Amino acid sequence: MDLDVLNMFVIAGGTLAIPILAFVASFLLWPSALIRIYYWYWRRALGMQVRYANYDDYQFCYSYRGRPGYRPSILMLHGFSAHKDMWLSIVKFLPKNLHLVCVDMPGHEGTTRSDLDDYSISGQAKRIHQFVECIRLNRRPFHLVGTSMGGNVAGVYAAQYPEDICSLTLICPAGLPSTTDSKFIKQLRELQESKRIDRIPLIPSTPEEMADMLKLCSYVRFKVPQQILQGLVDVRIPHNEFYRKLFLEIADEKSRHSLHENMSKIKAPTQVIWGKQDQVLDVSGASVLANAIPDCHVYILENCGHSVVVERPRKTANLILEFLALLHSIDNNKKQA
Fold first, then answer.
1. Beta bridge partner(s), residue 102
2. According to DSSP H, which parts of 61-203 are helical?
3. Would you say which domain of life the source belongs to (predicted)?
4. Which of 169, 160, 171, 173 lies closest to 264 in space, CA to CA?
5. Pairing status of strand 297-301 against strand 270-275
6. 257 has catalytic annotation
């Protein structure tokens, strides 16, 4: 082999080895950094741009794609201890010309965290209304989507600010009484009885606890490498004190059944999506909403747990699009009548 060609392969091999070694080192030594890079890359690939909005001295962080058009904009509210990027799995299956907004909930990720803030469900709904006004999202009624804690907030928002929204999607929302205790509720009761309430199953501090939380939240069993579990824990640990405070706030009497207390005030067309095997919030909550909200559209997903957005992203995206198309068709028929 020609010496120059051999040197070229050696140089090329060395050049390729650098990023490969960097990737391996990141995976082994700094898995949390790799997770952040992963979300950054995914946002970029899907065309989601990160922006900030300020209401007085309060800062909201959000990502968006598209511009307001003839179809309603969609605002998405994530669940407890999550962040705006949890919606990326669904964004992947939504049209690129649809205006999407995913906001970090109060105290989460890039949105302001303050010890003086009101983190009750009604307090969070007020903050989200401030955000909506900041970016002028309510110039036209928009479609509101919320999951888990975010579903609780979304339902209260729909009841408190009915003029802002045209329709609502609640994905396994919190804030409802249940006739059947879920596995999570049973675990909480056991912890209360043993006076170990600081060991909340949704606030892991070790890779083992993270694996247990994933099993609790998901019916689908994802095979997650130990290093990724460690990375997920490393990302969360600096925020665990806040998560404990937040959890106690939303589990308090003031917020525990906020959605139930407000659901009779919801007038917007409503869609409910729930995983049949949800171990965090029992699926019986779907019937509670169906009985209280007129013309409520309920979809129960088989072989799916609490993490509907992660387990069934394509199905969830399609259900939302079909619901919006149905409402658009009904609206057109009314105009033609």
1. 63, 76
2. 88-91, 121-134, 149-160, 183-193
3. Eukaryota
4. 160
5. parallel
6. no
Instruction: Indicate if 307 belongs to the active site.
Output: no
- Among the options 81, 278, 282, 297, which is catalytic? 278
Alpha helical stretches, state H, 171-293: 183-193, 207-217, 226-236, 240-250, 258-262, 285-292
- Name the residue type at position 226: Q
Strands 270-275 and 74-77: unpaired
- Of 143, 260, 297, 306, catalytic: 306
What structural domains and CATH numbers belong to the chain? 46-334 (3.40.50.1820)
* Model confidence, pTM: 0.90
- The b/e string for 145-184 (b: 16+ C-beta within 10 A; e otherwise) is bbbbbbbbbbbbbbbebeebbbbbbbbbbbbbeeeeebeb
- Among residues 32, 148, 182, 258, which one is catalytic? 148
The yes-or-no answer on residue 278 being catalytic is yes
